[in-house]
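Training component of the fellowship. As part of building independent skills, the fellow (R.M.) carried out the full modelling exercise for a liganded target. The chosen ligand was iron/sulfur cluster. The inputs are recorded below so that the supervisory panel can assess the work.
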Amino acid sequence: MTDSSFKLHPFEGGLRLAANTSISTSTPVGQVPLPARLVVPIHQHIGEPATPLVNPGDHVLKGQRIARAEGFVSVPVHAPSSGTVIEIADHPVPHPSGLSAECIVIDTDGNDECIEHTQDILPYAELDPSHLRNIVRDAGIVGLGGAGFPSFIKMNPGPASHVKMLIVNGAECEPYISCDNMLMRERPDEIIAGIPILLHALQAERCIIGIEDNKPEAIKALTGALELHKNAPIEVVVLPTLYPTGGERQLIYLLTGLEVPSQGLPADIGVVCHNPGTVAAIYRALIMHEPLISRIVTVTGKGVANPGNHEVLIGTPMSDVIKHCGGYADQADRLIMGGPMMGFALSTDAMPVIKTTNCLLVSTPDELPLPKTPLPCIRCGECQTVCPAKLLPQQLYWYAHAQDFDKIQEYDLFDCIECGCCAYVCPSHLPLVHYYRYAKTEIWTRERERIRSDVARERFEFRAERLEHDKQERAERLRNRKKALKEPAARGEDPEKAAIQAALDRVEAKKKQAPRTDSVD
Ligand code: SF4
Ligand code: SF4
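Fellow's submitted model of the complex:
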């Protein structure tokens, strides 16, 4: 049901931005055709890259696991369609670093032939939560909101946390992006059917679906789907439209009044958040045995001829997606993955759609002007007023600029959600978020190097200790041998004969100790 009397706790800061989503929501979700070639990166999630399980020349089926998870924070990768693996090599991938990464390239055969499932589909309520998590991990599901965190980890809050509430984050507050909106409008049943699975996995008591009030069709669709589940502990709560309500911490505060501790997790306060796309993917994995091999992508902006939302196979070249949407308009100037606030510009469309590609925004110069030349900070404080994380963005900027990475952490750099509100209002056009990302990357790199050098130092110390121990043992043995030679001489005996006799005595003693091996039959 929809609860209009639900008590909300507005967070500080934020911006009212034009949604610009109507251009991509006027037509139903389409389907981008099967491309001739799929380029599937093995690293589409936060954590360790998966390890390829196939070789060039192998024939693969749709849904077949082609790379296995490596380590705990990792998920496998599956073939989005049937075909032949032609190479495993580095290709450009959508990442802010602009670097290439290892991909499994499949020439599709056009048959779209699925792998056969041999396991029975069991009722999820009869499964242990750990079994559910394994299914979700094996299906390669990650957060589809943009971060790509493996979902099975979020389903395992640990023995110390008791999760009371599941929040489905339907806020989708970033301008231009409408894939969650369209999913909620067109497939509300999948979301509603996925929620009880997550409630069971988390052993949580209730679920709230939070949706901004600028998505009336989605609110209506989910409320309608809930009619069939009257006794389910699920509520749709309508939220005021404000950027960044979709930020996990901001949404949790808005709905519960509880603050996630600095550098803590929502599970620490008994809450877990999932994106509606992730919930639907979990439903499809559990009920239909489908791994994550496609997603809805918003293709939008004045720079594309026919904006819309489309189901796209993972690995489909972005150029194919844009082509399916009528191609580029004459004024097209930038291709951005994500929205204008948190997305990043891509240097080419010869990159594949990955699990976290929620939006391809093709902008024109009048739509999203290029960044202006930065000027010195005038200490106006505007950035602080809009910061939804209650940070001091200008101080963060100073310390990032000065590369004072100890000080910047004292100012809670890692609580920054990189929403871009501060940079949006900065009259000096300072690229504040770039500085924060740079500082975070530097700190992570230094931390990794510190851990590596700590491990190397420990190894070195252990080896030095072992060598010293061996040296002392050798010296001790030598001392004993010398002593053994000196003692007979002191008694007036021939040391050589005495040594031989001692060796013979040792052999005799050993013989006496040895067990009998002769048969007694
Ligand atoms: S908004 Fe820009 S100019 Fe104003 S205090 Fe913040 S960083 Fe400085
Ligand atoms: S990017 Fe970070 S510092 Fe800037 S407003 Fe958002 S949370 Fe605050």
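The panel noted the following from the submitted structure. Residues 386-387, 389, 391, 393, 396, 416-422, 432-433, 436 surround iron/sulfur cluster (ligand 2) (CB under 6 Å). The first strand starts at residue 30 and ends at 31.
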